[in-house]
Amino acid sequence: MSYDLKSESEVKEYINNLGIEYRFGCYSEKKPDVCHLLADFLEAIKKDYEKAGRVYKNNCDEFKYGKSCLKYGGYCLTGKGIRNSDYPAAYSYFEKGCNLDEPFSCFNQAILLVTKNDTFGVQQDVLKGMNLLEKSCDAQNATACYYLSGLHIAGARNGSKVGEKAEKDNYDIPRSMEKAFKYALVGCELGNMYSCANLSQMYAKGDGVEKDLKLADKYKQKALDLQSETENNSETLKFGLGLENK
């Protein structure tokens, strides 16, 4: 059946039928991908975050669907649909998603591990966090590559805050501009504009790579091009982000 999506009544009918189709595919046919679509439908169309959260949670726990683990972990992190934030539960679901090879779940799990914040209820472990960022970066998560680059720019240790320079000779992750360059290059190639901006500065200064002003200009322009392509971006791109405190 075709619908006239310019007709309000037919749009409503289409949406209603879509919900019925997703419920049947999830509850009767027990298809994990359809259950995830049902949760997305409840979240985006119905704005019923409590029900959406229950579907995401069940789809993660029962059907081992990584994207649903990631989504429910996000609900736990923000308190969406569950009234209050629960960081340990968020960590648990991000870990489940990561073990199911969902790269953004690995990234979120890593961020909770490398961040020093006593309110999280998650013990800081920068080495484990770095390993998870590497897994996420290897799965082509550009943001994870950018964070990895930043960790190697500043160095890190347990007890330090993200971006805080570690004490000399007391690093869990030693400073390495060569490794910082490596991950900035991957992040830039994957489309992370901040990685491209840092890459430009590395080439301009000869940090971690041989100085090359032409390549510095090339990656500066790429960063600016990526910024212009980003819709509704209110942030101002800063070149050398993370480099000024190295």
UniProtKB/TrEMBL annotation:
<comment type="similarity">
    <text>Belongs to the hcp beta-lactamase family.</text>
</comment>
<dbReference type="InterPro" id="IPR011990">
    <property type="entry name" value="TPR-like_helical_dom_sf"/>
</dbReference>
<dbReference type="Pfam" id="PF08238">
    <property type="entry name" value="Sel1"/>
</dbReference>
<keyword id="KW-0677">Repeat</keyword>
<dbReference type="InterPro" id="IPR006597">
    <property type="entry name" value="Sel1-like"/>
</dbReference>
<dbReference type="GO" id="GO:0005758">
    <property type="term" value="C:mitochondrial intermembrane space"/>
</dbReference>
<protein>
    <recommendedName>
        <fullName>Cytochrome c oxidase assembly factor 7</fullName>
    </recommendedName>
</protein>
<dbReference type="InterPro" id="IPR040239">
    <property type="entry name" value="HcpB-like"/>
</dbReference>
